[in-house]
Structures are given as structure tokens and as C-alpha cells.
Specification:
This protein is an alpha+beta fold. It has a 4-stranded antiparallel sheet, with helices on both faces.
Length: 96
């Protein structure tokens, strides 16, 4: 079963693995650390049955708008609905 939860600092190593697999110019550890600490952002991670981070998604919230920064999924987990779950979580958060 795939679960979605809020991202925290302890997740950054797992998120970096997803990031490096997904983008030719990946964000750095510092950028993710700063994003997690930023009160105007929200990030979610998706975990598989073993607790491994298999995807993440984030959004900036400015005034009354949200801008999705990234949604990324490990290559071997694509096609399982992970990205959709992350997007749904971001949308639900924005509607709160």
C-alpha cells in the first residue's frame, strides 16, 4: 500500500534519491532543507509498504495562490498512481 504524509527534515535523503533520478539538474540538500523550514511551502512524500520514499511533491503558497514546485516519482514506481496521489494531496491542502 502506498501512503502520503507531510515531508520532514528526516526525509531529505530519500527525497534527494528521487530528485536525482528524476531531474538532470537536481535540487540540493540545502534547497530542500530550506523548503521544509519555509512557512509558505508544503511538501508531501509518498512511501511504499516498506517505508521507502518513492515520490514527493511540493507547493509554494503565496497570498491566495499555490504554485507546484515539483512532483517526482522513482523510476521503478512510475505508473502506480504515485504522482496522482501527491497531486491530490497538494490540491486538498490548498483547499483547506
Amino acid at each position: 500500500m502506498i501512503s502520503v504524509r507531510y515531508m520532514n527534515e528526516d526525509d531529505i535523503d530519500g527525497v534527494l534519491t528521487v530528485e536525482k533520478e528524476s531531474f538532470s539538474t537536481p535540487w540540493t540538500e540545502k534547497l530542500f532543507f530550506d523548503e521544509v523550514k519555509n512557512p509558505r511551502t508544503v511538501y508531501f512524500v509518498c512511501e511504499d509498504e516498506t517505508g521507502e520514499i518513492i515520490g514527493y511533491g511540493g507547493m509554494w503558497h503565496v497570498v491566495d495562490e499555490g504554485q507546484i514546485t515539483n512532483i517526482a516519482v522513482r523510476k521503478n514506481q512510475r505508473g502506480r498512481g504515485v504522482g496522482s496521489k501527491l497531486l491530490e494531496s497538494l490540491i486538498a491542502w490548498a483547499k483547506e
